[in-house]
Design a protein that fits this description.
By secondary structure, the chain is α+β, with helices and mostly antiparallel strands. The protein has a domain of 41 residues. It is built from 2 helices and 5 strands; from the N terminus they run βββββαα. A 5-stranded antiparallel β-sheet has the order 4-3-2-1-5, with no helix packed on it. Strand 3 and strand 4 form a beta hairpin. The longest helix is centred in the C-terminal third of the chain and has 13 residues. The chain is elongated. The protein starts with 28 loop residues before the first strand and ends in a 10-residue tail after the last helix.
Length: 115
């Protein structure tokens, strides 16, 4: 007699402890860890026995037990600003230098697509 073996799979996903519906209030900052979506709760709604919260960032409903309290800012952005005059000067210096003239000497003025 051959016995069938059960396949046992171990879920290796990161587990987050979700919030309880008693902990959630309108205006609270939360994060949905699966996608990293962060926002402020606009409204709380009960649908088929589950509690959902609408976030201001996406206007989508998220299950309360899948949300965690947000900490810090919701986006970190860094921008590099450089004066336009400095960029133009650097480009002119490159065009006037030996590197550009050497590059122009090595082309045959053909316009091939290469394909």
């Amino acid at each position: 007699m051959v016995r069938a073996q059960k396949n046992i799979f171990i879920d290796e996903k990161l587990v987050f402890s979700g919030m309880l519906s008693q902990e959630v209030v309108q205006g609270m900052r939360v994060r949905y860890p699966r996608t990293g979506t962060t926002g402020t709760i606009l409204r709380i709604e009960h649908v088929r026995g589950d509690v959902f919260a609408e976030l201001d960032s996406t206007h989508l409903l998220y299950r309360i037990d899948q949300l965690i309290p947000a900490s810090g800012s919701d986006k970190t952005t860094s921008t590099i600003s450089e004066d336009a005059k400095k960029v133009i000067e650097r480009e002119r210096a490159f065009a006037a230098g030996n590197d550009m003239t050497e590059a122009l000497k090595n082309i045959d003025q053909s316009c091939e697509g290469g394909g």
